[in-house]
Amino acid sequence: MIAQVTGPLLCLLAIQLAPASLDPAARRTLGAGLWMVTWWITECVPILATSLLPLALFPLLGIASSKAAAAPYANDLVFLFLAGFLLAAALEKWESHARVAYRLVLLVGLSGRRVVLGVMLATGAISMWISNTATAAMMYPIAVAIGGLFARDPKGDNARAALMLGVAYAASIGGMATVIGSPPNLVVAAALRELAHTPVSFMQFAALGFPLTVVLLPLCWLLLVFVTFRGQPTLAGDAGAMLRERLAALGPVRGGERRVLIIFTLTALAWVLRERKDLGGVMFPGLVDLAPGLSDAAIGVAAAILLFLLPGRAKDGTSEPLLTWREARKIPWDVLFFFGGGLSLAQVMEAQGLTTWFGTGLSHLQGLPPAVIYLGVAITVLVLSELASNLAVATMVMPVAAALGTSVGLPPALVMLVAGFAASTGFALPIATPPNTIVFGSGMVTVRQMMRAGLLLDLVSVFVIAAVVAWLGPLVLGG
């Protein structure tokens, strides 16, 4: 109740007490932003209600018309993420994600520390395409079953903690790899277009996100099994037999599962091949040469429609569409409205000059080395993401990051990317991310263990994020 009242109260205070350098419309915009951020961070009302606030509040405050406030909710990137949700729902329906997980764990091996690596690789690979929360929830029972096979001694207890934390951390790290991997990624991609006027394709985002995942995932494993939880554990049972039994129960890839995997693979290839590729001065054509208006969102939505149209045969011999409304209705629709609300807020902040005002206030940072600024941004966002929803943090910091880049003479897109990737961190507290909360519920990890491992990974992550974006960002974005 207190937080519900605090949001509108902050709005009124901002309108009355904001600096005189802001004109009245910008003051009202600042107040609306504080109201929305307060409700998002505290989650005192459902996320959907807060996300719809611009449609009622902006016209009342006179800072945007209803039409202007509503337009961002139909941003094509929102539909890209919708397509990603629907593809993930189809993969889960036909249990393809479980098949990938079992095969990867068996491939890497089940001896001692390698089982932790196998589970983490499987989790990270799946999290590139399915939400971090869903991936962690799916891998959780697998990790619990394997953890139960470790010996009941201090080394076994350490291995169980490393295994459970590996699931949580790999889900967050894997989600960084693609624009549909986690909600903060889509916030960043949309903000890059709206605030930095730098559209980023699926392939361009992956060219930055995938290297981050490739670097951070093995580093995370090394920190867990060789630094935080040392000792070579032994398995008291046959984990391989358990996983092979589960894999055999899935049967061969056929029927509906095969069709879903084909559509998923073709969709991913289409995202990769959509743009022209300049390889060493040789230009390779892309799908845009055949259909100039083709976007990543159009490809994803076309795939989602196919899932509803094409039938597939289940194990019991019955035939039904690869995806039905029964599965589709369960996707997190409120998250899609969150994107719309965040984009609407960002757009009105830009239109009313609030981002320029932020930039002026941050101009005293000009002259600092770029590496220091990138690292400072990453650390600030990391601290926020430990205490609040990663999605809310990403939405909140995008306008500030854009203004900071402009004020200090750095490419705003790079500062925003650093902030966006840092928003996907937060490894030290159970409340920081849903995957952390899920594995903490296992009882195999204490708060102290999570903080010890998470703070170390947090420290490594911010350095890696700042370095990768600073190095690869100009090459990928062409700036």
Commentary on this structure:
- 71% of the residues lie in helices and 3% in strands.
- It has 479 residues and is mostly helical.
- It has a domain of 252 residues.
- The strands form two sheets. A two-stranded antiparallel ribbon has the order 1-2.
- A hairpin with a 5-residue loop joins strand 3 and strand 4.
- Helix 7 runs antiparallel to helix 8.
Keywords:
single chain; globular; two-stranded antiparallel ribbon; 23 helices; 479 residues; mainly alpha
Q: What's the gist of this structure?
A:
With 479 residues, the chain is mostly helical.
Proportion of β residues?
Answer: under 5%
Strand order of the largest sheet: 1-2
**Structural class by secondary-structure content:** mainly alpha
Query: Which regions are unreliable across 5 or more consecutive residues at pLDDT < 50?
Result: none
Query: Mind describing the biggest β-sheet?
Result: 2 strands, antiparallel
Would you list the SSEs in sequence order as H and E?
A: HHHHHHHHHHHHHHEEHEEHHHHHHHH
- Number of strand elements: 4
Count of helical regions: 23
Molecular shape: globular
* Helix share bin: over 70%
Estimate the mean pLDDT confidence.
86
Distance between the termini: 47 Å
Cα-based radius of gyration, to the nearest Å:
23 Å
